[in-house]
Amino acid sequence: MSIFTSSGLSARRLTSLGHRLGIVAITLLGLLTLTFLIGRVMPLDPVLSIVGADADQSTYDQVYHQLGLDRPMYVQYFYYLRDLMHGDLGRALLSGNSVAADIARVFPATIELATIAILFGTCVGVPLGVFAATHRGRWGDQVVRVISLCGYSVPVFWFGMMGLIIFYAWLNWAGGAGRIDLAYDGLVESRTGMLLIDSALAGEWDVFWSAVKHITLPACILGLHSMAYIARMTRSFMLAQLSQEYIITARVKGLSEREVIWRHAFLNILVQLLTIVALAYGGLLEGAVLIETVFAWPGFGSYLVSSLLLGDMNAVMGCVLLIGIIFVSLNLIADALYQVFDPRTR
């Protein structure tokens, strides 16, 4: 009987996995199709970006043909999918390199920025949310709710500009635009593409501290939005748990308030928080566009904006595909964490 039960569970798991992978494939295909159609109807001409506005008609027609824009739209889409199946995202008009190579070059800078931002958002947002829930209706709760509302609703580019004015131009506490001082540019060999790690591995501590000075302000400002979101969700989850009967029972048994909050209530919301943090991290990787523009950060967001302005749809579609893969992967990871930490979902 146990053998049949085990085989039945394995079959259900394989079916569930196949179902999820099918949904992932359909989602990414739909995202690609929508992006491709939007790119073809946008009022931007990639040919003019290459040849310039003063080029003659014959030059324009030649480049128009080389890009395959004279083919029917469904044929262009078919060829794009065919190349994509072979790992070819096309060539970027901006650099002349393959889109995959360009993304591999700029994406580590965004990962570095977003990772520090999510660490800041989580380390600050979770304690604030717990504090607000345990002081419900009091002044501490009101302060946390106002902070969360401001962090969630005020545009991040406004925070970025105010941060530059106050902490860079006025107080001189933070670094300016870019990832590092110009005096240290090119001193560290790029191994991972993440300047903090590369400078530490090379033992170039002057470069390391310069990179820390430059990344702290944009990372904290980028993390404000996720901090506000995480704090609000933590407060909501904790309030739901603190009203449960097992919390009353724990207090009646004489457990300290610290044990009741952190060992009982908080552990029961941990799985939900993991999902929130994972999705917030994906949002930071996508939403770093404005912060990278304000701080002249040479990352994924800046590359996407430049490609959009140029009408380089190969680069735009490659970026959109990567964003879709990130969100889908983070959702799958969150589901897996649910099954690991919550036995009820197995």
Structure, explained:
This protein has 346 residues and is mainly α. The protein contains 14 helices and no strands. It is globular, with a radius of gyration of 25 Å.
Helix content: over 70%
Any guess at the CATH architecture of the largest domain? Orthogonal Bundle
Indicate the structural class.
mainly alpha
* CATH fold naming of the largest domain: MetI-like fold
Write down the overall geometry: globular
Rg over alpha carbons: 25 Å
Q: Residue ranges: pLDDT <50 for 5 or more in a row?
A: none
CATH class of the largest domain: Mainly Alpha
Keywords: Cell membrane, Membrane, Transmembrane, Transmembrane helix, Transport
Family: Belongs to the binding-protein-dependent transport system permease family.
Organism: Candidatus Dactylopiibacterium carminicum
GO molecular function, one term: dipeptide transmembrane transporter activity
Blueprint of the fold:
Blueprint: H1 2-41, H2 46-51, H3 57-66, H4 73-85, H5 99-134, H6 139-153, H7 156-170, H8 195-202, H9 205-242, H10 245-252, H11 257-287, H12 289-294, H13 300-310, H14 313-341
Helix pairs in contact: 1-14, 5-6, 5-9, 5-11, 6-9, 7-9, 8-9, 9-11, 11-14, 13-14
Task: Quickly describe the structure.
Helices cover 77% and strands 0% of the residues. By secondary structure, it is an all-alpha fold. The longest helix is centred in the first third of the chain and has 40 residues, at 2-41.
Highlighted features:
346 residues; mainly alpha; MetI-like fold; 2 domains; 14 helices; 77% helix; 0% strand
